[in-house]
From TrEMBL:
Protein name: Pimeloyl-ACP methyl ester carboxylesterase
Bilayer-spanning residue ranges: 23-41
Species lineage: Bacteria, Bacillati, Actinomycetota, Actinomycetes, Micromonosporales
Record-annotated AB hydrolase-1 domain positions: 101-325
Protein source organism: Micromonospora cremea
Pfam families, sorted: Abhydrolase_6 (PF12697)
């Protein structure tokens, strides 16, 4: 080839150059926004914490108002564990079941969320409610919880401090996952499990729900955003001026969780649960594909009783308290 050969170099069209420039600007802006968000929500704390004394006071006031709808507890117990102090309430029941029920609440919630359930559950047995460690409530996390195993340790230590040798464990939402997680790591003393629309147990959480939860997790956004998400999970029910909903919203705004992401329970693990399990799946739950969750529970649980509640949302414990109590009574009576 001659040195005089001309080589034509294709020059990008102006439109292509503009498109590339806009794309670069957009990507850069998104990256900067991500950095700003990461910087804003960063925290050096290894344990859950309140954003301020005023924020904690607001939550405690909402907690007290919601707790006023509960029966009076016979006892309030603070149990010291390796990871912090766990608040437990005992309510005296009128039923003849010897082993008590132990209730585990959902995420960003606490004992008062069981207000609608206690009257009917107390007809079965004594009831203990627990404020989950690392969540907003009266429990106080003191050391980091970094794994599923450590989640099981603090709960096992809490239950071991109670006077009874056996108990019927009942969990709603993330409380259901917490109950299964304990049974997989140390089933000592667990007579039965009741899982009320549990998350990360029978099906994955839908992407749409995850995306809708993100704005609600940012404390500087308006209260209406958190109320909107809480209403979404409750099937569109209004949540303004509802004591339990006010408590949950206050916890979401003012408390920062420092807990590991729960590991999705596998079918193999479900098959290893060698105890009676009641699974209650809400048909209109936005926390999973209810049909897929029901199928998984029926397929995987060796000793499972699975109830699909038509027309119920993820807030099923407050929507169907009598039905849930009847199903729990049918489960626990032969095993007490």
């Amino acid at each position: 080839m001659s040195d005089d050969t001309e080589i034509e170099i294709e020059t990008p069209a102006p439109r292509a150059r503009r498109w590339k420039r806009r794309t670069l600007i957009t990507v850069t802006a998104c990256a900067l926004l991500a950095l700003v968000v990461a910087f804003a929500i960063r925290t050096p704390s290894p344990v859950g914490y309140w954003d301020s004394a005023e924020g904690q006071d607001r939550f405690r006031a909402a907690y007290a108002e919601a707790f006023a709808d509960m029966p009076s507890p016979a006892e309030s117990i603070d149990v010291r564990t390796d990871f912090g102090i766990v608040r437990v309430y005992r309510f005296a029941g009128t039923g003849h079941t010897s082993a008590p029920l132990v209730l585990l609440p959902g995420r960003a919630s606490a004992s008062p969320m069981w207000a609608d359930n206690l009257p009917s559950l107390l007809k079965i047995a004594d009831v203990y409610t627990i404020d989950l460690l690392g969540e907003p409530g009266m429990s106080i996390q003191e050391r980091p919880i970094t794994s599923d195993e450590e989640q099981a340790v603090w709960l096992h230590q809490t239950l071991a401090a109670l006077p009874e040798k056996e108990y019927h464990l009942v969990g709603v939402s993330i409380g259901g996952w917490t109950a299964v997680n304990l049974a997989l790591h140390d089933p000592t003393g667990i007579a039965t499990l009741t899982l009320v629309d549990p998350v990360y147990v029978f099906a994955d959480m839908p992407l749409g729900t995850i995306l809708r939860s993100l704005p609600a997790s940012l404390p500087w956004l308006p209260k209406s955003w958190r109320d909107s998400f809480n209403s979404y999970t409750a099937g569109g029910a209004p949540v303004e001026d509802v004591p339990v909903a006010d408590m949950i919203e206050a916890g979401m705004q003012h408390y920062t969780l420092r807990l590991p992401q729960p590991t999705r329970i596998t079918e193999k693990q479900l098959g290893a649960l060698n105890l009676p399990v009641l699974a209650i799946i809400a048909s209109d739950s936005v926390m999973h594909d209810a049909q897929a969750a029901t199928q998984t529970a029926r397929r995987a649980l060796p000793q499972g009783t699975v109830h699909h509640y038509p027309g119920a949302s993820h807030a099923v414990n407050g929507e169907r308290p009598e039905q849930i109590a009847t199903d729990i009574a049918n489960l626990v009576t032969p095993h007490s």
